[in-house]
Amino acid sequence: MSVPAENRRPLKTRSKPWAQALAKALAARKISPNQISSAGLGFAALGGACLLAAAHSALFFVAAAVCVQARLLCNLMDGLVAIEGGLKSNFGDLFNEIPDRIADAIFLVCAGRAAGGIELGWACALLAVFTAYVRVFGGSLGQKQDFRGPMAKQQRMFVLTLGCIGAAIDAMLGNHMPILTIALWIIAAGSALTSALRITRIGKATLVKQ
Asked: Model pTM greater than 0.85?
């Protein structure tokens, strides 16, 4: 990962002592940012498998929620190890962006399948990728990349985590509330709004430059 500092997602967690300590430990062991990014994709694949298996046990929903958070931890660590740990690579930009987009799609499509609405899952995945496309497109125009929400990656994964935990509890209680479906609709609507807001900001910034 070799993302310039001005194009990094603003995260307060980066300055937390535990995050700094973990990043230093990973860097000391020469674990590269690209390896960490790949691990994040691995957690996404495992989380997707758990969602597909959730019909057999509610505990798979819990496991999927853990995988979502593990993926986010990898996303945090790859940047810290690359920038603060000084382990940037020539292919860092590719490993920073591409695995993230694949991970989003895996989680959201599989969540749609688990919720009984594969089309909704695909819609969420496409909208999630589109928000990232708009962000990067703004950067290609020479603007600072816009990581704001209301449904950026962290918010999407937070809502998905809550949806998985809620679905697990609902299943354990023997209820049949569409909790995961509701979570996916929130992600879809929020992602669409996020894309619209980012496009509007890019347009305004372009007009200011003229």
From this structure: yes
| CA proximity to 190, closest of 110, 108, 119 | 108
Structural domain contains residue 5: no
Distance CA 149, CA 190 (A): 8
Q: For residues 141-172, b (16+ Cβ closer than 10 Å) or e, as one string?
A: eeeebbbebebbbbbbbbbbbbbbbbbbebbe
**Domain of residue 157, residue span:** 13-209
Give yes or no for a contact between 41 and 103, defined as CB atoms under 8 angstroms apart: yes
Looking at the 3D structure of the chain, how many domains does it have?
1
Please choose, from the candidates 194, 145, 181, 206, the residue with its C-alpha nearest in 3D space to the C-alpha of residue 7: 145
pLDDT tens track for 37-70: 999 999 999 999 999 999 999 999 999 999 999 9
Whether residue 146 contacts residue 198, with contact meaning beta carbons closer than 8 Å, is answered with: yes
